[in-house]
TrEMBL record:
<feature type="binding site">
    <location>
        <position position="16"/>
    </location>
    <ligand>
        <name>tRNA</name>
    </ligand>
</feature>
<feature type="site" description="Discriminates between blocked and unblocked aminoacyl-tRNA">
    <location>
        <position position="11"/>
    </location>
</feature>
<dbReference type="GO" id="GO:0000049">
    <property type="term" value="F:tRNA binding"/>
</dbReference>
<feature type="binding site">
    <location>
        <position position="115"/>
    </location>
    <ligand>
        <name>tRNA</name>
    </ligand>
</feature>
<feature type="binding site">
    <location>
        <position position="67"/>
    </location>
    <ligand>
        <name>tRNA</name>
    </ligand>
</feature>
<feature type="site" description="Stabilizes the basic form of H active site to accept a proton">
    <location>
        <position position="94"/>
    </location>
</feature>
<dbReference type="GO" id="GO:0004045">
    <property type="term" value="F:peptidyl-tRNA hydrolase activity"/>
</dbReference>
<keyword id="KW-0820">tRNA-binding</keyword>
<comment type="subunit">
    <text>Monomer.</text>
</comment>
<keyword id="KW-0378">Hydrolase</keyword>
<comment type="function">
    <text>Catalyzes the release of premature peptidyl moieties from peptidyl-tRNA molecules trapped in stalled 50S ribosomal subunits, and thus maintains levels of free tRNAs and 50S ribosomes.</text>
</comment>
<comment type="function">
    <text>Hydrolyzes ribosome-free peptidyl-tRNAs (with 1 or more amino acids incorporated), which drop off the ribosome during protein synthesis, or as a result of ribosome stalling.</text>
</comment>
<dbReference type="GO" id="GO:0005737">
    <property type="term" value="C:cytoplasm"/>
</dbReference>
<dbReference type="InterPro" id="IPR036416">
    <property type="entry name" value="Pept_tRNA_hydro_sf"/>
</dbReference>
<feature type="active site" description="Proton acceptor">
    <location>
        <position position="21"/>
    </location>
</feature>
<dbReference type="GO" id="GO:0006515">
    <property type="term" value="P:protein quality control for misfolded or incompletely synthesized proteins"/>
</dbReference>
<feature type="binding site">
    <location>
        <position position="69"/>
    </location>
    <ligand>
        <name>tRNA</name>
    </ligand>
</feature>
Length: 193
């Protein structure tokens, strides 16, 4: 199945723009720019949204403006309206369990404590959607004394930001294959790059 909806997770507002939790927004912003799309506010979905073409496929780009833990409201509403199945959805999000610079693609699995994923799973009624996980590291593995909630809502160190941006760039290179439903090829390229 091709991907019809790419959701970037983050929190709206200037105070969150540069925080680790907004890595999903960063990727979708880059994807919109590279495909010539413009994200516009859609009050019906409480989100920024664009329709674009990637690898010859029509794709919706979505950035929920509900704050992270209510992301499912936007994803569920748009999916129902356009009759998009969960396995046609790719959610791009920050991942504490991966170091900065690493991106991983997977389908299904638990939310792993990620409130945005928990809410999307509840809205879609299944765990069976695709995830593109962008590593941000964990405060413990990065030898930081911050609590997780504080860590994700702060700006990464410059060296970590550079690595996250590299992971986004690698992810953008495999996005055409992901959108076409060539998940094995995309996974191999992304995980070995």
């Amino acid at each position: 199945m091709p991907i019809r909806l790419i959701v970037g997770l983050g929190n709206p507002g200037a105070e969150y723009e540069q925080t680790r939790h907004n890595a999903g927004f960063w990727l979708v912003d880059n994807l919109a720019n590279s495909s010539g799309a413009r994200l516009n506010r859609e009050t019906k979905y409480n989100a920024l949204m664009a329709k674009t073409s990637i690898a010859g496929q029509e794709v919706y780009l979505l950035e929920p403006q509900t704050y992270m833990n209510r992301s499912g409201q936007s994803v569920g509403a748009l999916s129902r309206f356009f009759k998009i199945n969960p396995d046609e959805v790719l959610v791009v999000h920050d991942e504490l369990d991966l170091m900065p610079g690493i991106a991983r693609l997977k389908k299904g699995g638990s939310a792993g404590g990620h409130n945005g994923l928990k809410d999307i799973t509840a809205a879609l009624g299944t765990h069976d959607y695709w995830r593109l996980r962008l590593g941000i590291g964990h405060p413990r593995t990065l030898s930081l004394q911050q609590q997780v909630a504080d860590f994700v809502l702060h700006r990464p160190r410059r060296e970590d930001q550079d690595l996250i941006e590299q992971a986004i760039d690698k992810s953008l290179l495999v996005m055409p294959a992901i959108v076409e439903g060539k998940f094995e090829a995309a996974t191999m390229k992304l995980h070995t790059a």
